[in-house]
Amino acid sequence: MRFQKAVVAAAVTLLCSPLWALPARADAVDDAFLNTLRVAGLGPTDVSIEGAHEVCRAVWSGTNPWQMAAIVHDAVKGSTYDQAEIFVQAALASYCPPRNEVNA
Question: pLDDT at position 97, please?
């Protein structure tokens, strides 16, 4: 539940913050993730990457990705379910290696 609240808070900030609030330093993975959000019409912010990592932690703790997308969608007024799903899918693809890779 704690992870879900953190993701919701990050998602609310993500979709409600201006585009100029980008991270000061981003690597190639961050750049690709933020570009995915930009293409989807989401305003990437300095909390986008943090929120993506929270998605990983929540999924690794047992929350399924569709639940995460629903949580994000419900928390962010004006967002579509598709936008929330894109955020979760981009987070998983960019930052969430399989558990066996993390524990290796």
Answer: 81
Q: How far apart are CA 61 and CA 63, in angstroms?
A: 6
Please work out, in degrees rounded to the nearest 5, the angle formed at the alpha carbon of residue 63 by the alpha carbons of 59 and 69. Answer: 85
The whole domain housing 69 covers: 2-102
The rounded distance, in Å, linking the Cα atoms of 36 and 4 is 22
Average pLDDT over residues 49-65: 91
Inter-helix orientation angle 81-95/28-39, to 10° = 170
Q: How many domains does the chain have?
A: 1
Give the pLDDT mean for 92-102.
75
**pTM for the whole thing?**
0.70
